[in-house]
Amino acid sequence: MKAILFYLLFVSTFLSCQQKIKLNMPEYDDVMMTSNSYNLPYNVNFTKETLPKGLKRFEQKQKNEFLNILEYDNQGNLIFKYYRQFVNETWNGKFLTIIERNFYNNKNQLTKTIVLNSNTGSSENEYYYDSEENLILIKIKGLPADGNNNNPWRYIENLVNSNDFDNDKNVIEVDKNSEYNYYVYEYDFDKKHVNAFIKNQDSKQKFHTVYKFNLLNQLVSKTAFDGNSINYFNSYFIEYNGNKKVTKEYDDEKNITQTTTEFKENLFTYIETVNTEFHFIQKRKYFGKTLISDDSFTENNNEKTLEKYDVDEYNIPTKMTHETNGKVDLEVYFINKYEFFKD
Q1: Nearest 5 degrees, angle CA 115-CA 118-CA 119?
Q2: pTM for this one?
Q3: Phi, psi values for residue 140, rounded to 5°
Q4: Which of 33, 187, 6, 10 is CA-nearest to residue 114?
């Protein structure tokens, strides 16, 4: 018994002696959240660096249809994100709608996100941090929508501001739900490792993810495990070459399937993707997280596509011109509206 007590005391003392730092973790990857996505069409997002000073509300329409609505508090925190994506002419409502509502504490830390998805339902995340502002726990719950991929919650397209959202019946319902899953982050600051896992997962499941950092606090890998085996589909590995970040992805036979090179110039981000599995090359330019240029080539059908964007004074698109093999085949126009806090 004394030996066990001594061991527990030793482990506790060892862990407490680790110097906590703020690790440069990637954003929490929630597929329901459009605010942290680079890859959705016509998705407008500002970063802290690109947010127009004093912006309160942004609206973007294509013809008479809302595509993007963003609301901010007076600290520059995104509190409401409305996004719509065209599916097809025969789909119920034609558009998929995803709405995100964020809440913050007095340190401007994100503490809760509620998402409504017109096709799948709702989800709610609550976020908890350590003293260095590292994310240590996410409490997750949800409410599925009834329906078989037929846009059963189409009505949420009419929730066009945070007040509408807060009073919605399904937001109130998911908020009352007390059944959580717990996503835990365990930090080893000496080894610069973070182990992330679902605390209450089925005992037969052994899924977890390990994030590793170098001495410069740069993320060098995200490795997903199923038991002791690496799940390469959900893993990636990063190298740094000057101002360029090179991310590599592999298949289960450890063949490279995709290489992504990313670098920044001022407020613009350039991302080049070479995919050997589907044989395409894509070169994209973003202002913050908003796409303003896309140059792609697909080897299988020898097709080159180009999306060129005209932008407004805040570098947000007002027109998209799409070319295939040098021929213009689509033009899309956007109407942007900005509302600012009064001084």
Answers
A1: 110
A2: 0.90
A3: -120, 135
A4: 33
- Phi, psi (rounded to 5 degrees) for 2: -60, -40
pLDDT of 17 reads 58
β strands within 169-242, DSSP E: 181-188, 193-198, 207-213, 219-226, 229-230, 236-241
Burial of 298 (0-12, 13-18, 19+ CB in 10 A): middle
CA distance from start to end of the chain: 67
- Which residues 6+ apart lie within 8 Å of 95 measured at CB? 65, 84, 85, 86, 87, 118, 157
Task: Tell me the per-residue pLDDT of 244-260, one tens digit each, with 9 for 90 and over.
Answer: 999 999 999 999 999 99
Alpha-carbon gap, residue 182 to 162, rounded angstroms? 27
Residue 230 pLDDT level (bands cut at 50, 70, 90): very high
Q: Which two tokens stand for residue 286?
A: 């973003």
Q: Which of 331, 327, 337, 281 is nearest to 310 (CA)?
A: 331
**CA distances to 33, 45, 99, 323 from 39, in Å:** 12, 11, 17, 19
pLDDT averaged over every residue in the chain: 92
Count of C-beta atoms within a 10 Å radius of residue 229? 10
CA 162/CA 114 separation, integer angstroms = 11
